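S1.2 Input.
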Amino acid sequence: MLRAQTRAEAVAESSDQGGSWEDDIPGIPAAVVVGAAAEDKNIGEYMNNAITELPGLDEVIPLGQDGQVIINGAPSNQVFTIAKPTIAEISLAKTQAVTLSGKVLNVARIKAGVSFETAVVNFYMPGIQAGQNIQVYQLMNGQWNQLTVSEIREDHVVVNMTSTGTLAFFEIAAQ
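S1.3 Output.
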């Protein structure tokens, strides 16, 4: 539980670590500053493999992934990389939210360093509560395809994936 709390604080605080890329940031290695800029992330997002802010979305639930992915049915030490989506992908997610009568929580490009047929991926999303109606869609060939959400618990959404790509997380209003 202590690790989850520490990670929660780090991801939640990551959006407060902005600044100009030209600024010398005490205690932050230059390679981190350059890496964050290259990925269009703030320092906190880059250091925590997370997304805490997106253009065109006023409210974003932070999204992170720190390993413990089950690959082809076996536990692994694989970490899936959380990368920023394009503006077009964010726009498509907003349109999909209207179709679903829901709200976009976050959008991200998911990358993996291994190939797989199936992956069970535990995404960290501080503020998510057990019982929330969260749906996850993957953008494939310009169309959103619903993925199986196998578990929703406090601060976590567990998703079954068969490939990497752009994912959008939606909260669907109760009917």
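S1.4 Remarks. The first strand starts at residue 50 and ends at 51.
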